[in-house]
Specification:
This protein is mainly beta. The strands form two sheets. The chain has a five-stranded antiparallel sheet with strand order 4-5-3-8-7. The protein has a four-stranded mixed sheet with strand order 1-2-9-6, with no helix packed on it.
């Protein structure tokens, strides 16, 4: 990506056209909820990432709370900014994510219809650092990097 201000550097952010809110659950902590029904295959969030190369992450990031909010990224790790760090885990998620590597963003898309007042949840994959009380997924993840069968935009 070039540093000048041409159209190749513009990433349109069309999220937050939904009535979303953060709520706190005594067990799960803060999470994202919808105040309206959202249809399947709907883009609900585009989160830019803050990139940490592998050395920086090994030296600093993995020793902090940031370790719970990063995604594997080529050459290191990406910290999801915005709502991307607020989605809680569920083994049967209603939201999936697509890592848009060239644009350094993560796109979050509904996997099924989501009802009003329902929490929007993603799968954190197979290597959880907490006890998972959600019901197991029918289809186990084949990759710890990308728990859904979405292709990156550059493939």
């Amino acid at each position: 990506m070039s540093n000048n201000n041409d159209n190749h550097d513009i990433i349109t952010l069309k999220q937050h056209c939904f009535q979303l809110e953060l709520r706190t659950d005594p067990v799960r902590g803060r999470g994202v909820f919808t105040k309206e029904k959202i249809r399947r295959n709907t883009l609900v969030e585009i989160s830019p990432i803050l990139f940490f190369d592998s050395k920086e992450y090994d030296d600093h990031g993995k020793h902090t709370i940031l370790d719970h909010y990063t995604y594997c990224w080529p050459g290191g790790f990406g910290l999801a900014l915005g709502l991307g760090s607020m989605f809680n885990h569920d083994s049967s998620p209603n939201v999936g994510f697509i890592r848009d590597i060239p644009n350094k963003v993560i796109r979050y898309v509904t996997l099924r219809d989501v009802e009003k007042d329902e929490e929007l949840c993603i799968s954190y994959g197979n290597h959880l650092w907490f006890e998972d009380d959600s019901k197991p997924s029918d289809v186990p993840s084949e990759s710890e990097d990308e728990p859904f069968p979405f292709a990156d935009d550059d493939e």
